Amino acid sequence: MIKGRVWLYGDHVNTDLIIPGRYLDDYDLRSLSEHAMEDIDISFSRNVKSGDIIVAGRNFGCGSSREQAPAVLRQKGVGAVLADSVARIFYRNAINIGLPVVICPRVSTQLRAGDVATVDMQLGSITRESDGLEIRFAPPPDFLLEILDRGGLVPYMRERLSR
Amino acid sequence: MAGMTFAQKVLFRASGRQASPGDIVSAKVDLAMSHENSALVVKAFREMGAERIWDCEKVVVLFDHRVPANTSKTAEGHRAVRRFAIEQGLPHFYDLKEGICHQVLPEKGHIVPGMLVVGCDSHTTTYGALGAFSTGIGATEMAAVWATGELWFRIPETLRVRVGGSLPRRVSAKDVILSIIGDLGADGADYMCVEFVGDTIDRMSISSRMVLSNMSVEMGAKAGVVFPDGKTEEWLGPRTSRPWGTETSDASAEIADEVNFDISSLHPQVAKPHSVDNVVPVEEVSGIEIDQALLGSCTNGRLEDLQAAEAILRGRRIADRTRLIVVPASREVYIDAAEAGTLASLVKSGAIVLNPGCGPCLGAHQGILAAGERCISTTNRNFKGRMGNPNSEIYLASPETVAASALKGEITDPREV
After folding, report:
1. Closest Cα in chain B, distance from residue A162 (Å)
2. ipTM here
3. Which site from B65, B170, B178, B371 is most exposed, i.e. has the minimal number of CB atoms within 10 Å?
4. At A97, which CATH number?
5. Which of B225, B260, B295 is the last residue of a domain?
6. Contact B140 A17 (CB under 8 A)
7. What's the domain count of chain A?
8. CATH code for the domain of B359
9. Are B257 and B159 in contact (CB under 8 A)?
10. Which of B386, B387, B392, B396 to mutate to test the interface with A (most CBs of A within 10 A)?
């Protein structure tokens, strides 16, 4: 179960905002992640806590195929990304690096910054802790849940290739 | 029974499963491309415990984003990939010598119609201009492709974009696609396969079609396809002898939507900061002063783009307050533009010519903006901070509009110079 505080953002948060291209020569995720979201929210990387949840509007993660975008969020401890819609490559990348990502139309109008929420990926359920409001979403197919469960595509493939 | 769309047919052939939009299939890819981020792919490949690439003939690796290396960290990344390429005996490793992946792969004959192509770059949609089903993926899943040759795909819905009419003077493919994106929005084709059809597309060169396919991802598309015709055949003829598929969508196939655009009275278009769908006709922004003009990229760095700009600038000097940066998309384009005198003419007009590559488009080097500066660019993204500074502004436009704007030092309607 994922539980954390909500960071709320708008529509079309692109990968350049999540991690600017000017830093991408750095292959060390720990130092790279210090720049996460800095062009849109300078307080994010300083104040985000392990388990916190990003909630956003439409088309989250649009733009480049850079996998560092979900990777820096996970590195900073983000427990899940919930958005009204998610750009295709970001969606794939997030699952592949083990960051739970949820497409849930209108979720950005149902949670506010600072809310505490819990997310159950198997059940397809988000709960707002303050009043117990439950928001449902279609859970990802089983094989994607399995990749998430293993911690990403690398451990998933390691298991598969060693068989 | 309904027929199949192009996307369904390609994924049927590659997966052995006849599936409907929304279904997920595991498909064998025909070609896998990666650039600098191969460093991440190599790392994930090793961590997966993989040893050999499944089929070296189907893998292309090159460097284009930061060439020559802009920092020692980049140089380390390049070296790690170079060593891997030698270790695996990769026959299609181009290092930093050829230019931008999306120009180089078609030029070198790696792309033919009907292929299923994946690339570690969002603009991998470009190869759709040659009739391939081609889409961007991430680095870790590329490692899985290197190991197994397979990947999961969701069968996309299809959005048909029909474009009709003759392009007015000094209006080009970039204006067409900006107008379409402005209309449909930055997620207007979310996850869909876009098919570009109509008499305007039929008359377009392969280079112009590549502009459309390239920018399809800026409206969320998974792929952006132009079906092959005589022009495709002529273009591919000298580049490859490989047989190619002739799949198109069946007339009875179900598609999500069809939208129509008549471009016969289209004005030059400009995407204002900081999103690609923030599009207006050029006259709404003309007169805005610019510090930098950029002509190049996987969107508009081809010979016809350089020549369209040169035709406007020939024998004239760009404005003193403006710097014009020209980046040919590939070595082939560079040579052709040099031999045709295009580059010399642009330099005489005051341009700086860089080596083929992605250049300043992604804000890594070769033309980063200062705070408060403004750039008009033929590239594909005007996101905040894209060219290296979050307090700068990027306007996207055609080669013609960029050239006219460099000439005047302010955003300028190319029909008026």
Report:
1. 8
2. 0.95
3. B371
4. 3.20.19.10
5. B260
6. no
7. 1
8. 3.30.499.10
9. yes
10. B386
